[in-house]
Amino acid sequence: MNIAVSKQQSTSQALPWVPAAHERSKLLRLHNVVDALVSIAEHSGDTASFLDEATATAMELTRATGAVVLLAEPSRELSIAAARGQMACVDEAAFGRGQTLARNAVDSHQTLHSDATDGDARLASGACARHGLHSLIATPLRYGDEVLGVLEVCSSVPCAFDAIDEQGIALIGNALGGALGRQVALDEHARLLAQLQAALQTTQAKARKYQDAALYDALTGLPNRAHFTARLEDVCREHQGLPDGFAVLFVDLDGFKAINDLHGHAMGDAVLRATAESLTSSVRGADLVARIGGDEFVVLLCGLRDGARDTPTVASNIVASLARPRTIDGVELVIEASVGWAPHDGQSDAAAIVAAADAAMYRNKKARQR
């Protein structure tokens, strides 16, 4: 009798302890779910690492043996974004064919739970039995009214998951859906921004092309008359009252018409390009060479210590450089030119100094023809 009483007392004392421990376990599991949700909300990595971490979290919370995140494509196909454990062995097409709960969860917009996949009418036969998936939970990844994909966990034993597991996976799915939706929106914004940037670059390239067309000679690539005149006007203003700080050379090819008539315009174009190269190589990088029309070129010599003294030497070097024999399109030629120059007097504007250099060129040309 005493022993019986003792057993009864022992049992009565133990009964309150069992449900208390169970409640503490539930609270701990719910606390872990909350921590997981916070982690998902605060994740700052890229989408791939974010989803990979989410599958690991889902497995840890539910003691699942596999987890997968599938994204819903516009074609309704499901593509694997992250997979772990047993789910990593399942063929991607099996999810879309309804061999797990993933397809049904996406279509129904509901969290689905199967304690025993064997004989579950919702599942197409095949994948679960082949891969030993005996318990499943699948939840849609919702963003507003849109389902972006599905989170699914599995276990290799039947009845592996309880209501807390189902609620936890549903909550994680909601958090994932929100995070993915925001990421999709960011990606879309980034795509639109990239399109805008590409369009801007195209527009800028076209603007540069039009600008080049307005300021550069298409044949030689040299600055044209407008470009040269604008630069010369700036230099004239900078040297107002300071004579001999720069000079302008005017270069005109001799016998250029005869070259066109004898060898054709293609040869004439080649001679003009060769002239541009020769002039550019004969002066400093700070100087400006331009083609202002036909066979006429001008050179702006900047930063001279004594324009009246230095300019004739540069002009002589240019004439000698052009006169060196060269083969152009298979024909050996020398390029003859007449050069005139005008050092700045400290007062003249751009038009006046170019006119002075042009007049000097014609005087020199006539002198050479005598």
From TrEMBL:
It is an enzyme of class 2 (transferase). Residues 186-213 form a coiled coil. It comes from the Bacteria. GO terms for molecular function: diguanylate cyclase activity. Its EC number is 2.7.7.65. InterPro entries: DGC-Regulatory_Protein (IPR052163), GAF (IPR003018), GAF-like_dom_sf (IPR029016), GGDEF_dom (IPR000160), Nucleotide_cyclase (IPR029787), Rev_trsase/Diguanyl_cyclase (IPR043128). Keywords: Coiled coil, Nucleotidyltransferase, Transferase. Residues 244-370 form the GGDEF domain. SUPFAM superfamilies: GAF domain-like, Nucleotide cyclase. Gene3D superfamilies: 3.30.450.40, 3.30.70.270. This is Diguanylate cyclase domain-containing protein. The lineage of its organism: Bacteria, Pseudomonadati, Pseudomonadota, Gammaproteobacteria, Lysobacterales.
